TrEMBL record:
Its main location: cytoplasm. Pyridoxal 5'-phosphate binds at A76, S77, W102, T150, D169, Q192, N234, T235. Binds 1 pyridoxal phosphate per subunit. Residues 5-345 form the Aminotransferase class V domain. GO terms for biological process: L-serine biosynthetic process; pyridoxine biosynthetic process. Keywords: Amino-acid biosynthesis, Aminotransferase, Cytoplasm, Pyridoxal phosphate, Pyridoxine biosynthesis, Serine biosynthesis, Transferase. It catalyses: 4-(phosphooxy)-L-threonine + 2-oxoglutarate = (R)-3-hydroxy-2-oxo-4-phosphooxybutanoate + L-glutamate; O-phospho-L-serine + 2-oxoglutarate = 3-phosphooxypyruvate + L-glutamate. It is an enzyme of class 2 (transferase). L-glutamate binds at R42. It comes from Schleiferia thermophila. This is Phosphoserine aminotransferase. Belongs to the class-V pyridoxal-phosphate-dependent aminotransferase family. SerC subfamily.
Length: 357
């Protein structure tokens, strides 16, 4: 089978060895002669998986005491709701920065629970940069940001120092670089980019910020329910948690965040250097805010798209088309994408220039 270079924006590429281990556990898990999918989530074998997954998150994030790690369902989109429902006080206010489609969806949901102050937005400029120099109001209940804007290809390089609890949607760049995770009071991320398959969402929350809203919260929506039951209040997404555990093991055993940051930097530098150099293409976002995960670019002459598309597809590249709402191209270079795949794409772009030039 010819190699496919998988630039999918999510669900996206996972390490080959993780897929192999996952496939084997579907047939026979822990030598039980039973599938991972057909044993109780209360069995000691699965409880060990959940415990290991939690401890890998803590190891990768180097968190101090006082945080809980949860594996929930409902995607990052449900976190748009749960964050506000659990943190926004009755008659309270929350602060958000609007840096893209997902941030704006989070804002929309928060408005159901209280007042939302959008402290900065780059919407008027088609989200092509990350706003900076804004003030976070000290009287809001929390400040929400999105570390990486998957659709527009921008990424926060330096997080603000927030006078109030800082919440971050890290769905599309979780575990891709070293950051000071202890700056955040709540972090959430859908697993399906850097962490594992679709079906679970990582939530890391500082316990002390919970229980202050004054509203009744249904059990399934209340972080405290899930904390008190170690993410087993109801049946957890066993397969997604298991594959996330394997992916984190892969990351840790290879050298952790320092190792992957180094590779991700190389991939991004190679990709953006070609976008800038090649006269047929241009990048769509402010250079200082360029995402290491999702490089968005366009052909200067859109009429060339069918020919370019044919060429990268023939080279075994998959998933390069931009999000349906913005068009153009998006090279998603998540953790498991090898440098070699970016090299192949860059060669295709050079070859295209040669043919057209
Ligand atoms: N936030 C970000 C940054 C995302 O990229 C996505 C999905 N691509 C979401 C939220 C929504 O995630 P989900 O589909 O898991 O609800």
């Amino acid at each position: 089978m010819a190699k496919v270079h998988n630039f999918s924006a999510g669900p996206s590429i996972l390490p080959r060895e993780v897929l192999e281990k996952a496939a084997s556990a579907v047939l026979d898990f822990d030598n039980l002669k039973l599938s991972l999918l057909e044993i109780s989530h209360r069995s000691k074998n699965f409880e060990a998986v959940m415990e290991r997954a939690r401890s890998l998150v803590k190891e990768l994030m180097q968190l101090p005491d006082g945080y809980s790690v949860l594996f929930l369902q409902g995607g990052a989109s449900l976190q748009f709701v749960m964050v506000a429902q659990n943190l926004l006080r009755e008659r309270g206010k929350a602060a958000y920065i609007d840096t893209g489609t997902w941030a704006s969806n989070a804002i929309k949901e928060a408005k159901i629970f209280g007042q939302v102050e959008v402290v900065a937005s780059s919407k008027a400029d088609n989200y092509r940069y990350i706003p900076k120099g804004y003030t976070i109001p000290a009287d809001a209940d929390y400040f929400h940001c999105t570390s990486n804007n998957t659709i527009y290809g921008t990424q926060i390089k330096e997080f603000p120092t927030s006078p109030i609890p800082m919440v971050c949607d890290m769905s599309s760049d979780i575990f891709s670089r070293r950051i000071d995770f202890s700056k955040f009071s709540l972090i959430y991320a859908g697993a399906q980019k850097n962490m594992g398959p679709a079906g679970t969402t990582l939530v890391v929350v500082k316990d002390e910020i919970l229980g202050k809203t004054g509203r009744a919260i249904p059990a399934m929506m209340d972080y405290r329910t899930h904390i008190s039951k170690d993410s087993m209040y109801n049946t957890p997404p066993v397969f997604a948690v298991y594959v996330s555990m394997l992916t984190m093991e892969w990351l840790v055993s290879n050298g952790g965040l320092e190792w992957i940051e180094n590779i991700n930097r190389q991939k991004a530098e190679l990709m953006y250097a070609e976008i800038d150099r090649n006269p047929l293409f241009y990048g769509t976002v402010a250079p200082e805010d360029r995402s290491w995960m999702n490089a968005c670019f366009l052909l200067k002459d859109p009429a060339l798209e069918p020919e370019f598309d044919k060429m990268w597809k023939e080279a075994g590249i998959s998933g390069l088309r931009g999000h349906r709402s913005v068009g153009g191209y998006r090279a998603s270079m998540y953790n498991a994408l090898p440098l070699e795949s970016v090299q192949v794409l860059v060669e295709v772009m050079k070859e295209f220039e040669r043919i057209k030039g």
